[in-house]
């Protein structure tokens, strides 16, 4: 069993795509942490109800971990570890959608490695031109779900993350076109809501 940390945004979607591409027969479950007071995924600003719908469209079981507001790292790790310990199958990998932030990647490897888990990062340091086609050509739309105060004059919640927007962002100084430094966050919207439950939108190959 492989546990993919699912935020509901584009990086998690990309991680799932590339992990499935390199491990076509692997069993995957999603894991999402959320604010137990608001029932919203922190940072991404995605309601828990939408996260559940995403999992349904992907035909994947989702593990939900409730966290207190302003959750400290110790509490986060304790609750995630408790949820992982409840899985009745051996866990092969924890899968993350980190792209370029070395400190976060190293932190995950350190803390989860101490728990005995292997971490994999399917989109780590991939080129932008390798990632964008997956987002633009698949049966999904990517929408801006949250914007930091500094960039609210440039980006709006609900705006499509598409080729035009990426090109605009690439011409600007101080903003990563993928929002890697927290400039903005995204959510995945499945365009084909009629996909049968037994037909994953990210197919096994």
Question: In words, what does this structure look like?
Answer:
- With 205 residues, the protein is α/β, with parallel strands linked by helices.
- It has 2 domains: 2-120, Rossmann fold (3-Layer(aba) Sandwich), CATH 3.40.50; 134-190, no CATH class.
- The protein has helices spanning 10-22, 48-58, 73-85, 102-114, 128-137, 163-170; strands spanning 2-5, 28-35, 40-41, 46-47, 62-67, 93-95, 119-120, 140-147, 184-190.
- The strands form 3 sheets. Strands 5-2-1-6-7 form a 5-stranded parallel beta sheet, sandwiched between helices. Strands 3-4 form a two-stranded antiparallel ribbon. Strands 8-9 form a two-stranded antiparallel ribbon.
- Strand 1 (2-5), helix 1 (10-22) and strand 2 form a beta-alpha-beta unit.
- The longest helix is centred in the first third of the chain and has 13 residues, at 10-22.
- The two termini are 17 Å apart.
């Amino acid at each position: 069993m492989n546990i993919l940390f699912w935020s509901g945004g584009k990086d998690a979607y990309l991680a799932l795509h590339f992990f499935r591409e390199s491990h076509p027969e692997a069993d995957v479950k999603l894991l999402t942490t959320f604010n137990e007071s608001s029932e919203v995924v922190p940072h991404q600003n995605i309601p828990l109800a939408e996260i559940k719908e995403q999992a349904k469209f992907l035909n994947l079981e989702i593990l939900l971990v409730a966290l207190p507001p302003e959750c400290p790292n110790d509490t986060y790790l304790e609750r995630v570890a408790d949820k992982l310990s409840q899985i009745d199958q051996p866990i092969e990998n924890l899968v993350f959608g980190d792209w370029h932030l070395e400190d976060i990647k190293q932190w995950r490897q350190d803390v989860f490695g101490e728990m005995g888990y292997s971490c994999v990062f399917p989109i780590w340091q991939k080129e932008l031109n390798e990632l964008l086609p997956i987002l633009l050509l698949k049966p999904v739309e990517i929408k801006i779900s949250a914007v930091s105060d500094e960039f609210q004059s440039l980006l709006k919640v609900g705006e499509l993350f598409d080729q035009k927007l990426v090109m605009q962002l690439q011409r600007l100084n101080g903003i990563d076109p993928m929002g890697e430094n927290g400039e903005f966050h995204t959510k995945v919207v499945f365009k084909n809501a009629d996909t049968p439950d037994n037909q994953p939108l990210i197919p096994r190959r």
